[in-house]
Write a structure and sequence with these properties.
The protein has about 750 residues and is an all-alpha fold. Helix content is about 45%, strand content about 0%. It folds into two domains: about 230 residues, no CATH class; about 325 residues, no CATH class. GO terms for molecular function: DNA binding; zinc ion binding.
């Protein structure tokens, strides 16, 4: 391994003196602190390749605390939190086997009697976010964020120094390290995922179905199946959240193979130290629907996110355009079918407040992924429609309105999920991946607050926004990755402010300002390119890890006719100097408690004040949309957890193209992509020696991204001929609320 610059020595120039296992200090002689002991204190922990390291390397690892683990009372808390909050969605270990060796129980039926120190260190890192702060302080690790960074570094050092060479242990440990993300290493998890995939393939985990018996290395089918489906889950959750391409495609894995079932966990259902059998069975059921969702997400991600990173779709021929539309319809139908099947499978537990909080948490999280996929699909389609308006001129407006309704429903469902997590007090158990899934809904809710037309509407929208403020604070307390995401959101809001300053204070030709209700859905339908620019800005930031310059975005969203937009936006409300009443306290209830449609409440209130008969919506949100209605009179749909469409969602023109051929670059819309690595080339799954020994570095890893890491404080402009400035008359209380949470996050590193 080449020197990486983070070690005080170059490994190639160190002495090659070897140290044997018994040359290490004895456990009784080597207490690193009152709360840590040498790993050999626990008989089930193994690190056989430590003896192959030079004495200098071994001493360095010991000095960094890599060879120590928390004492038993503290370790108990870490492993309990691991099996409570990591294992349910990433079951790489057999829980029954673990507890047997952890408690040193002599059980001849158990085939696994030891655990790699590297795997345990990765477990400590993954579970750290859920361990009580008091326990973390007792372990001498400071606060939660500091502890995560320390534990991650210690696990990474073991990998970098090749202290563990067993492919299974490396695959398991690397997969747990995919939970690492920070403002410096935003995409670190993707690199660890690559390492895990290649080590898993080295032991044949991807062909687990070919052999029922244990192989020559003792790896049984169940172990391989657990590992591979856990990898597949991470290879769907990470790309969907980080807006990146897949690493495991249908070309290198048969997705028709049966996914994880309750039978695969039968051995551990009655041997768990943290859950009763009933809860274990429910969690196994949730995991199964997650695996089925992973299969459906394959089509979504391959269609929406280019394997070349942040792509700019090019103009297609009408034939290619219609082919893409057909793929969209197929993927959306698969998502809808998954939703129906999952509802039937989980049944009443989705809305029950009597199930274990972990069942509520992971079922809610699963549906958050589903709604995020709906958002991604709608955005991709809207972008495709904007580029190819000439093919759908007659139906363009109607199609945008239907996409808007889908977007609004999906975003509202995520908001209700966030509210449910907070209501039940389980938001603190959300994994780091949830940050990426709540970023866009947070941004949209902030925009809604800014576009409020009255104080009552502002109060309603502010209450919804406060849910996201609370959950961002929860993230901030545990995850470094929150810092970068908060900066991205702030920059996107800054851009929105610049646009709003230019349009909200302009008068119509009659000299009167509009006062109609307005929110981000109206922005989407009336000026879709303005909305798409905000979405693409955030997507670029997640994809590349930096805020975009104007030239980084597609040309069709760079220049906007701002003067034309004035008539669409309401007059800013005159806000009272006295503070708004505090929102009602959250009531404990269902994770998916459906909130009354706030926009409908606002409209009914205005009608009542004017002596009109309130209009009551009669359509079910899950029924097909009626004929297009103008956005000024439409009723917002009641947002439900499941959005099922009884008829084909779209009605695109199907005529054969008779126009001249257009320049086409169809590669970016192809439904199948070969396996790609993170440098833009093909993944070579046959060469494991060179690809499994390097851990992620701090530097940029995507060759296509080199030179694009612009400073995050660079303000995006709409065009060189447009000037924008902040106007002091604009209500800034929304930004002040953001600063209470997001400002504290972004300045955390300087404290």
């Amino acid at each position: 391994m080449e020197a990486s610059g983070i070690y005080p020595f170059d490994r190639e120039t160190t002495f090659n003196t070897k140290v044997t296992r018994n040359a290490l200090p004895l456990p009784s002689e080597h207490l690193h602190s009152d709360s840590n002991v040498i790993f050999s204190f626990f008989s089930f922990l193994k690190l056989p390749d430590l003896a192959e390291l030079s004495s200098e390397d071994a001493k360095f690892l010991e000095m960094k605390g890599c060879l120590h683990v928390p004492a038993k009372p503290i370790l108990n808390e870490f492993v309990q939190q691991y099996f409570l909050h990591v294992h349910p969605c990433l079951p790489i270990l057999n829980e029954a086997d673990f507890w047997s060796m952890y408690h040193n129980v002599a059980d001849p039926t158990r085939k696994v009697h030891s655990l790699s120190l590297f795997t345990l260190r990765a477990m400590l890192f993954a579970s750290c976010a859920f361990v009580p702060a008091k326990v973390i302080r007792l372990a001498g690790l400071g606060d939660t964020r500091t502890a995560r960074n320390t534990l991650y570094s210690q696990a990474k050092l073991l990998f970098d120094f090749k202290a563990e060479r067993d492919a299974l242990a490396k695959a398991q440990g690397a997969l747990l390290l995919t939970y690492q993300s920070s403002s410096i290493e935003l995409h670190c998890g993707s690199l660890w995922l690559t390492i895990s995939i290649q080590n898993a393939m080295a032991i044949g985990a991807h062909v687990y179905n070919l052999h029922d018996e244990a192989d020559a290395h003792g790896y049984c089918k169940n172990t391989k199946k657990r590992l591979w489906w856990s990898i597949l889950l991470r290879d769907r959750i990470l790309p969907l959240g980080m807006r990146r391409h897949l690493q495991i495609t249908p070309q290198n894995f048969d997705l028709s193979l049966d996914c994880m079932t309750e039978e695969d966990f039968e051995d551990e259902i009655y041997h768990s130290c943290v859950y009763n059998p009933e809860t274990k069975r429910l969690l196994a059921r949730v995991l199964r629907i997650q695996c089925k969702l992973a299969i459906v997400l394959t089509g979504v991600i391959m269609l929406v996110y280019s394997p070349n990173g942040f792509g700019q779709p090019k103009f297609m021929s009408e034939e290619a355009f219609l082919k893409t539309v057909n793929e969209l319809e197929d993927v959306r139908a698969n998502l809808s079918q998954w939703s129906n099947d999952s509802k039937a499978t989980l049944g009443p537990i989705l809305h029950s407040d009597k199930v274990h909080e972990s069942v509520a948490l992971y079922s809610g999280l699963t549906f958050m992924y589903y709604h995020a996929a709906r958002l991604a699909l709608c955005h991709f389609e809207a972008l495709t429609l904007e580029i190819h308006q000439k093919y759908i001129q007659d139906s363009h407006k109607r199609l945008l309105e239907r996409i808007r309704d889908e977007l609004e429903d999906a975003a509202s469902c995520i908001t209700n999920s966030v509210k449910g997590f907070l209501t039940r007090g389980i938001a603190r158990h959300l994994p780091i991946s949830a940050i990426a899934y709540t970023a866009l809904p947070l941004l949209l809710n902030a925009l809604d607050v800014k576009l409020s037309a009255s104080t009552s509407q502002t109060a309603t929208r502010q209450r919804r926004f406060r849910y996201y403020a609370e959950i961002m604070q929860s993230y901030r307390d545990r995850y470094d990755g929150t810092d970068g995401v908060a900066a991205f959101i702030q920059k996107a809001l800054q851009f929105a402010d610049n646009v709003n300053i230019s349009i909200m204070f302009q008068q119509t030709q009659s000299g009167k300002r509009k006062s109609e209700s307005c929110g981000w859905p109206e922005v989407f339908t009336r000026e879709p390119r303005l909305y798409l620019r905000l979405w693409l800005t955030l997507d670029y930031a997640f994809t590349r890890g930096s805020f975009p310059q104007d030239a980084d975005l597609p040309e069709y969203v760079r220049e906007l006719d701002i003067s034309r937009l004035a008539k669409y936006f309401p007059e800013p409300a005159l806000f009272l100097e006295s503070p708004l009443p505090a929102p009602s306290p959250l009531k404990r209830g269902s994770v998916f408690e459906i909130e009354d449609a706030p926009e409908t409440q606002e409209q009914q209130l205005q009608q009542h004040q004017q002596g009109e008969q309130p209009t009551v919506p009669t359509e079910d949100a899950r029924s097909p949309s009626p004929s297009p209605v103008s956005s000024t009179t439409r009723q917002n749909p009641v947002h439900s957890e499941f959005h099922d469409t009884a008829e084909p969602y779209y009605s695109y023109p199907r005529q054969t193209s008779t126009s001249a051929s257009w320049p086409v670059s169809y590669d970016e819309f192809s439904p199948t992509f070969p396996p790609q690595d993170l440098d833009g080339g093909y993944l070579d799954f046959s060469n494991f020696e060179d690809t499994t020994s390097e851990s992620p570095a701090v530097a940029s890893f995507d060759g296509a991204e080199q030179g694009l890491n612009y400073p995050v404080d660079r303000l995006t402009t709409l065009g060189s001929n447009m000037k924008f400035g902040f106007n002091e008359e604009v209500p800034m209380w929304t930004d002040n609320m953001l600063n209470e949470v997001l400002g504290a996050i972004t300045t955390q590193s300087a404290m």
